């Protein structure tokens, strides 16, 4: 069992969420930061059992919490029964949220917040494109975009069912099936050739040219992953960078320092928590699977057929 030190709390885990990085790390294809370990998992919910010497004020033994398995230089993970984690990474779990719902919030919603606001510099009245529209991060991002009055919200997805989910249930302006449509041409048509102000991408090389094409003048392209690979094909035209004054920026959350991550936690608590409680923001859980069936959970995520979070329970 881990022993909490300094600002850490020992949390008995009730549930944890799966993320795409788990699959990549399992295969040795994820750049794990120095503070990361060989065991997977970055988000969880549970109860506080004990503290280190200098925990953040406002927490006590027995508190129900959820948070990120980040903080400090220790190798922390969430695929576990217990985790020693910085109290700066924890939030109080409201009674209105289940253990499963709470475990599906931290990585997803904080990643969307970081990509959209801190990196992409989204502001009210801008247009935004969320690739992988039915992924957990984009589901959060679409809801954040609506709440902050985006002029238009576009999505791409791999099936008409997912497109309909993003448009009809989440409120995206329009969605495009990348298997049956040329999404870049469709978005340019939908925007009368103007393009989109902020683009959040997880796909990488196969979307690189399309993103340059649909980015509006002074647009920001935020890259969070490379599901299609990192090597660009011959013939990619980068002229749009200069012609449209574009900014392309990669970002990650896990490699950030504890102070930065703590600020994002505070932003989530202040701006999103009230909307979780009044149901303005919805947490979509695709399936709950016991920890002992983790292989089944990974296979489900690999199928790319889910809409929302896959959660594993420990209790």
Shape: globular
Strand content: 15-25%
Q: Structural class, from helix and strand content?
A: alpha/beta
| DSSP strand count | 13
Rg computed from alpha carbons, rounded to a whole number of angstroms: 19 Å
Distance between the termini: 16 Å
Question: Main β-sheet: number of strands, strand sense, barrel status?
Answer: 7 strands, mixed
Mean pLDDT: 93
The ordered string of helix (H) and strand (E) elements is EHEEEEHHEHEHEHEHEHEHHEHE
Q: Uncertain regions: pLDDT < 50 for 5+ in a row?
A: none
* Separate helix tally: 11
Helix share, percent: 25-40%
How does the SSE layout of this entry go?
Blueprint: E1 8-17, H1 20-26, E2 43-51, E3 64-68, E4 82-86, E5 90-92, H2 99-103, H3 106-119, E6 127-130, H4 136-147, E7 152-157, H5 160-169, E8 174-177, H6 183-190, E9 196-201, H7 205-214, E10 215-223, H8 240-243, E11 247-250, H9 258-271, H10 273-277, E12 285-290, H11 294-302, E13 309-313
Helix pairs in contact: 3-4, 3-9, 6-7
State the main characteristics:
315 residues, alpha/beta, six-stranded parallel β-sheet, 24% strand
Q: How would you characterize the overall build of this protein?
A:
- By secondary structure, this protein is α/β, with parallel strands linked by helices.
- Helices cover 31% and strands 24% of the residues.
- It is globular and about 55 Å long.
- The model has no long low-confidence stretch (mean pLDDT 93).
Please provide a brief summary of the model:
With 315 residues, this protein is an alpha/beta fold. The chain has helices spanning 20-26, 99-103, 106-119, 136-147, 160-169, 183-190, 205-214, 240-243, 258-271, 273-277, 294-302; strands at 8-17, 43-51, 64-68, 82-86, 90-92, 127-130, 152-157, 174-177, 196-201, 215-223, 247-250, 285-290, 309-313. Helix content is 31%, strand content 24%.
